[in-house]
């Protein structure tokens, strides 16, 4: 049962003072089986009151505002977490689509998680679906084949996508990072009528060389009959292990954005995201990403994006 010390800093700097900053954060560790939160400290510029609530998907969510003029907003999370799950998920590889249909029927959230988005290249998705789907295959087997397909046919390249990148663009690039592969997998599996959801968190392998190590990360959870929700990481083509630390779930990235908000003022802004993962043997992995955000004249939306942290 490994213990990880995760230090996550989101920093917005403005060229001139801004005001009336209103923000929402989803950087609280998930209270779920498989991980135990030993300590979590949150520090925000100006020490505003953070009002917390549970959103529709069960995520702990915080809201705060800073009304006074400021040139810096720093959100710092220090997390000590023990992952208690086994290194390998215990999955039901025998349950099929008839059993899935029976379990989904009448469950509005599962039905919602099985609904596909409307995209231009759905015919390409349908071709991928046909290549991974066959009569008699279990839900878990189809999920595995989908992850393997993405891992084999799409290159892992940083910097060519952002939070606005669509599934159509991912199919065109045949490349991206974890957020893109998660969105692509959601579209494929939902086209197979499998309920699935986006997961944000961290991946913490110690010198294993997995893609996305030590940074914020994204993967997919799939609803498997007889098992429930099970996580799979198409970026690395693995079912999630005790090296994955979970923050939030939702239909896609927008439901799980670590930090988002608005402010008032004609100012350019610079976003940087720092993540450090400390391991029990004393090794520390650190990564800093600097992202230039589009400047607006009156109201500017800011989001900690895939390009700013998720790898």
N-to-C span: 25 Å
Contiguous low-pLDDT stretches (5 residues minimum) are 295-301, 305-311
Number of helices: 6
- Counting helices, strands and paired strands, the structural category is alpha+beta
Helix content bin: 10-25%
- Count of domain modules: 2
Query: Mean pLDDT across all residues, rounded?
Result: 89
* Elements, N to C (H/E): EEEEEHHHHEHEHEEEEEEEEE
CATH architectural category of the largest domain: Roll
What name does CATH use for the topology of the largest domain?
A: C8orf32 fold
Strands, helices and their partners?
Blueprint: E1 3-25, E2 35-44, E3 51-54, E4 60-66, E5 70-83, H1 97-104, H2 108-113, H3 122-132, H4 139-153, E6 155-156, H5 167-173, E7 175-176, H6 178-191, E8 196-203, E9 216-224, E10 228-233, E11 238-239, E12 244-250, E13 259-264, E14 269-278, E15 284-292, E16 299-303
Parallel strand pairs: 6-7
Antiparallel strand pairs: 1-4, 1-5, 1-13, 1-14, 2-5, 3-4, 8-9, 8-12, 9-10, 10-11, 13-16, 14-15
Helix pairs in contact: 3-6, 4-6
Keywords:
Immunoglobulin-like, C8orf32 fold, 6 helices, 5-stranded antiparallel sheet, single chain, disordered C terminus, about 20% helix, alpha+beta, 2 domains
